[in-house]
Amino acid sequence: MKMFNDGEWGHHYESTNEDGEFERQSTMFRDWVEADPDADYPAEAGRYHLYISWACPWAHRTALIRSLRGLEDVISMDVVDPYRDEGGWQFTPEKAGCTEDSINGFDYLRETYRAADPNVTGRVTVPVLWDTQTETIVNNESEEILRMLDTAFADFGNDVTLYPEGYREEIDDAIDAIYAPINNGVYRAGFADSQQAYEDAVTDLFAALDHWEDVLADQRYLAGDKLTEADICLFTTLVRFDPVYVNHFRCNLRRIVDYPNLWNYLKDLYQTPGVAETVNLAHIKEHYFTTHESLNPKGIIPEGPVLDFEAPHDRARLAGGPPGALIQ
C-alpha cells in the first residue's frame, strides 16, 4: 500500500509492527464543522462535500448518517472505485455505483489530499469531508465526521438525532467499547503477521461479540431503546462480517448468523428506512477480495454466502425503535 511522505506519493506504508500486530495510522485532518456562523467551518447547506467508498466500513458510517438525517440535498457526495491499486482510491464514473469527482475533477482521491496540503504525509483514506469554499479537507476521521453530520447540521435535513440527550454517555461508551475489539479488531486479525497477533485479535473480537450478544438479549440497541450513532458504528462492521471477514480475515470462530441476538439486530438495522440503500455488497466484496493481494493473491471473489437481511426479525419484542422520522 502506498502513501504520501512530505507531499511525495509512492512511499510504502507498513501496517504491522515488529510483533506482527496491525497498527492503524492516525488520520491527519481533524478540523470541525460547527453550528456557529462565526466558526472557521460553519454548518451551511451546499458548502461541504463527502468523498466515500461504499466498500469501506469507516466511510459507510458517514454515508449512513447522511441518509438517516436526510442530508442528501445539504451535503453532496462522490464515490470512488471499490478496487484500489497502487495509485490509491480512483474515480471511475463509468463503473456501476461509482462517480466522477464532481467537485475538483480529479482522477485520484490522493489529488484531493495534496490540494489540501502540498506537504501531506500519511495514507489516503475515506471518508473525506471537503470544504468547497476554502478548498481544503476539513476532516478525514470517520467518527468525527459522523458526529458532525449528526449534530452540527441539526438545523438541516430532518428532525432525527442519533446522539440524543440522556443517552450520550452510553453512546460514547459503546462506540469506544466496540472500536478496538470489533471495528478495528477484524483488521487486527486479517492483517496480523504473526500467529500470536492473530490469536490475540480473534480472542478479543469474539469476546466482544459474545458480550454484545448478551447485552442485546434485553435491549433493542447498544445504548438502550434508541437507535444511535453507536449502532451505526457496529452495523457497518457486522454487515461485512459474514460476507468478508469470516473468510478473508479468518474471523471464523463463529458467524453473525450463529448469534441469535446479533443476527436479528443486524436485520433490524438493515430494515430501518434509509439504511439498506447504503449497503453495496458488490462493492464491499470486490474491494476486499481484489485489493488485498497478500490475502487473496488470485483476486477471486466468492459467490457466497447467501444472506437474507430482509428476513423477519424478533427485535420488536423489545422496547424502542427507529426515530419517528425514520418510520415510513
| CATH class label of the largest domain | Alpha Beta
| Anisotropy-based shape | globular
Q: Helices and strands: which structural class?
A: alpha+beta
Element-level helix/strand string: EEEHEHEEHHHHHHH
Describe the structure.
The protein is α+β, with helices and mostly antiparallel strands and 328 residues long. It has two domains: 2-151, Glutaredoxin (3-Layer(aba) Sandwich); 168-279 and 302-326, Glutathione S-transferase Yfyf (Class Pi), Chain A, domain 2 (Up-down Bundle), CATH 1.20.1050.10. It is built from nine helices and six strands. It has helices at 57-68, 110-116, 142-151, 168-183, 185-190, 195-215, 229-248, 260-270, 281-291, and strands spanning 2-5, 8-12, 48-52, 76-79, 128-131, 136-139. A four-stranded mixed beta sheet has the order 4-3-5-6, sandwiched between helices. Strands 1-2 form a two-stranded antiparallel sheet. Helix 4 (168-183) runs antiparallel to helix 6 and helix 4 packs parallel to helix 7. The radius of gyration is 19 Å and the shape is globular. The model has no long low-confidence stretch (mean pLDDT 96).
Structural features:
328 residues; alpha+beta; Glutaredoxin; Glutathione S-transferase Yfyf (Class Pi), Chain A, domain 2; 2 domains; four-stranded mixed β-sheet; 6 strands; globular
Summarize the structure.
This protein is an alpha+beta fold and 328 residues long. The chain folds into two domains: 2-151, Glutaredoxin, CATH 3.40.30.10; 168-279 and 302-326, Glutathione S-transferase Yfyf (Class Pi), Chain A, domain 2. It is built from nine helices and six strands.
